[in-house]
Each structure stands twice: as structure tokens, then as C-alpha cells.
Amino acid sequence: MIDPKHFRTVLGAYPTGVCVITSVDAAGLRTGLVVGSFTSISLDPPLVGFFPDKRSGSWPRIAATGRFCVNVLGADQLDLCRRFASRADDKFAELAHGHSPAGLPLLDNALAWIDCRIERVEDIGDHWLVVGAVEALDSRAGGTPLLFFRGQYHDAVEIAQGV
């Protein structure tokens, strides 16, 4: 039997990027959640994926829209990470943001964004595997990513320097 705490500690040695997945429903209700489990799946066709926790209150609202936008956070966006990791009812309260080509919330100064249509959702243990068909994407020049490593948030430069 694998001890869950030990499992988390060992896998914490692998740094992950931090993204906010956003969407908006037909009534204009904006939703977002933080993931550290975002990945590229395929170039042809262009597919990406992420793994929301089955206990997430935000994921069902995003799933119902059939679309999502991945916002890759920069090291200077820890405040946004904390906002979207919270259980607040309105994570967008008083937050200015733009819109992706699909009209989804695009967080200001994200390092990159990826507009997707939900291709499929698979039941995987205590999470869902969400596969998105990429419809549009872009990135900005400069900036370093916000990383999650050994249970804490870091700048990629900090990790490289052994901080």
C-alpha cells in the first residue's frame, strides 16, 4: 500500500507549472480554477489536458459550458493563483481581465493562453482527465512561470538557483 502523504512528497520533487482554467456560461457567469496538472497531449490534432479534482466546485460549471481557456501564470501572479485556488463564490470579483477569441476570461499578463473545446472527459481515480481540442492560442514575450515544487510556489529562477 502506498502512503498518500509519501506519494505526495515524492511526486512533489517534480515541478509543475500553474494554470488557471477559466470559462463563462451563457448567462455570463465566469468560473475559474487552479491546476498544476496541465499538459500537452497531441500536436496533430492539437490537444491539451488537465486533471481537476472530483471534489472541485468549479469544474462542474466549466464542464457544463463545453469550453475552457488555459491561462499560464507567471511568477508574479501568485495572488491570482491564491484567488482562484480559494472556494470563493465569485473569484472574479473586482478583477479586470480580457477575453480570449472564444469570449472566455483571459487573465491579464498570463504568460500564455489556450482556448479549447472540451473533447472528452475521462474518469481517472480521484480526478477527471479533461482533454481539450485547441482552437486558438498565444503567448507573450518575457516572464518566468509560476511553479509548484515541493509543496510551495516558486519562480523558475529560484529553483534553478537552488532557493
Automatic annotation (TrEMBL):
The residue ranges of the Flavin reductase like domain are: 11-155
- Where does the signal sequence lie? none
For this chain, the family text in UniProt reads: Belongs to the non-flavoprotein flavin reductase family.
Q: Tell me which stretches of the chain form a coiled coil.
A: none
Q: What class of enzyme is it?
A: oxidoreductase
Instruction: Give EC number(s), comma-separated.
Output: 1.-.-.-
Which organism is this protein's natural source? Novosphingobium pokkalii
InterPro entries per record: Flavin_Rdtase-like_dom, NADH-dep_flavin_reductase, Split_barrel_FMN-bd
Q: Which GO terms describe its molecular function?
A: oxidoreductase activity
Annotated Pfam families: Flavin_Reduct
What is this protein's record name? Flavin reductase family protein
Q: Which UniProt keywords apply?
A: Oxidoreductase
